[in-house]
Structures are given as structure tokens and as C-alpha cells.
Specification:
Radius of gyration: 21 Å
Strand content: under 5%
Number of strands: 0
Distance between the termini: 27 Å
Order of helices and strands: HHHHHHHHHHH
Shape: globular
Number of helices: 11
């Protein structure tokens, strides 16, 4: 059943559009950084670790676009699969061959995995390209500090990792962006069991609510505890809050899926 859902997901135009969009963002970020540093003396060139989309200053606008639209991109991929199958009536044929719980769990697994790698692969490609074009050791850095100054700041998350293992640091934020994309996709999937009248309503509604939440936290002086903040490198915050956001999104999504999806039929309003 998982392979069946995986095939359906990958063959969807929504998956292809989102993947190509993220791929183009990553490639554009790399080309933009190369253009800016082309012809500069080596003393002004930053290391490959600080030239990728995760930490690069000059491609930060593209990263901002990806992070702001991350919930929308993630949900479009396959979160509406049960809603779409119910509206078309195809889920009834599927349920004649497998148990409903297995069907829903298979979709959950596929949504989580496909969404994760849809975001992770373009980020990884961007990082690999920077290793080709930029030196591993740069004479310039994002902190405007001399090469011998480590610039450790304990208020930033994973900053010790940044100093000791810069590649692992970039990898952590690639995983965090991909992980939260998967969690948003799963959360969006669960919302379709509660609000099954319109794809646009669920996807746009979730996006608007998240933006309002970020705005409220920012106005209240707690923006460093917002989900969006944890997707940027050199971000302040709390490890506990980061874990709590992950647990909260996962637990709420699974609770809705188990309590609503497993036990009730979906009445689709066309």
C-alpha cells in the first residue's frame, strides 16, 4: 500500500511543480552567490559552508521566500490525497482491498517521507554545488570576524556545532527545514478530516493562521520562539521550545487522524 501511495504521490503534478520550484530556488541561490563573488580576490571569498542557501547572506531573500511559503509548498504536495480520493470516490475501491486504517497510515508515511526529501534534496544539491565553487576555508565570513576568531555565541542554537563541525551545522538546518515541512504536510493532511469543503480553505487557512501566530509572537517580543525562527541559521531560541513545537505538531496531527480519520466517514461537499 505504501508503494502504491508513493507512486501516486510522485506522479502528481503538484509534487513535480513543488519539487521543481524548490530546485530552482536552490540553483538560483547558488548562481546568485557565484555571480556576486566572481572576480573577487580570495581574501573576500567566504567558505563553502557560509556560501550555501542555508547561511549565505546574498541568497537570504530566496531562503526567506522558501521558509515563508514552506507550509503552502508542503501541503500542496500530497496532503489533500484523502480529500481528493473521497471527492472522486476512488477511496471506496481502495477500501475494498485494504483496511481503512492501513490506507490512512500508508498515506501518512508517504506524505511525511516524500515531503521531507522534496525539501531536503534541493537544499543538499545547493550545498554540494557550493563545495565545487567555493573553498572549504574562507578568508571572509558572515560575522565580519578575522579567521582566527571563532566568534562563539552561546545564545545562538547549535553555535558550538557551527564552529567545530560547520558541515554538520548546515546539515542540521537542512534537516530542520525538511522536518518541519513534513510536519506541516502531516498537519495539513489531518485538517482535511476536520474541514473537508475546500482545498484552498485548508491550505490558505493554515498559512494565514501561522502568519498571524508569527506576527503575534513578534509583537509580544517572543518571535525567537516561533517556528519560523527555528528554520534560520544563527537563530536564537530554546532547544526545549524547538522540541515542543515538533512534538506538538506531530501529536496534534496524529490525534486528529486517529480520532477523526479512523472513526468517521468523510462527507465531501462538491
Amino acid at each position: 500500500m505504501i508503494l502504491f501511495e508513493m507512486k501516486n504521490c510522485i506522479n502528481r503534478k503538484e509534487f513535480k511543480i513543488v519539487f521543481m520550484t524548490l530546485f530552482l530556488i536552490s540553483i538560483s541561490a547558488f548562481l546568485l552567490t557565484c555571480y556576486i563573488f566572481y572576480g573577487h580576490p580570495l581574501s573576500f571569498v567566504r567558505s563553502a559552508y557560509e556560501s550555501g542557501i542555508i547561511r549565505g547572506n546574498y541568497s537570504s531573500l530566496l531562503l526567506n521566500v522558501e521558509i515563508i511559503l514552506l507550509p503552502v509548498f508542503a501541503t500542496i504536495i500530497y496532503s489533500d490525497s484523502f480529500y481528493t480520493n473521497s471527492r472522486l470516490g476512488t477511496y471506496k475501491n481502495i477500501l475494498t482491498r485494504t483496511d481503512k486504517k492501513i490506507y490512512i497510515l500508508s498515506q501518512c508515511i508517504v506524505i511525511f517521507l516524500v515531503t521531507f526529501f522534496t525539501f531536503f534534496i534541493p537544499l543538499l544539491i545547493n550545498q554540494l554545488l557550493t563545495f565545487i565553487a567555493f573553498p572549504l576555508v574562507g578568508f571572509d565570513n558572515n560575522s565580519a570576524l578575522p579567521p582566527f576568531d571563532l566568534g562563539y555565541q552561546k545564545e545562538y542554537l547549535f553555535d558550538f556545532v557551527r564552529i567545530q563541525w560547520p558541515l554538520l551545522y548546515d546539515f542540521i538546518y537542512m534537516v530542520l527545514n525538511s522536518l518541519f515541512a513534513s510536519l506541516f504536510a502531516l498537519f495539513g493532511y489531518s485538517l482535511f478530516f476536520l474541514f473537508n469543503k475546500s482545498r484552498v480553505f485548508v491550505i490558505a487557512g493554515m498559512f494565514i493562521v501561522l502568519q498571524i501566530l508569527n506576527f503575534v509572537l513578534s509583537v509580544a517580543g517572543y518571535y525567537e520562539y516561533s517556528i519560523e525562527q527555528y528554520l534560520y541559521s544563527l537563530s536564537k531560541g530554546s532547544y526545549i521550545a524547538l522540541v515542543l513545537w515538533i512534538v506538538l505538531l506531530l501529536s496534534v496531527s496524529l490525534s486528529i487522524i486517529i480520532l477523526k480519520g479512523f472513526k468517521y466517514e468523510i462527507d465531501i461537499v462538491k
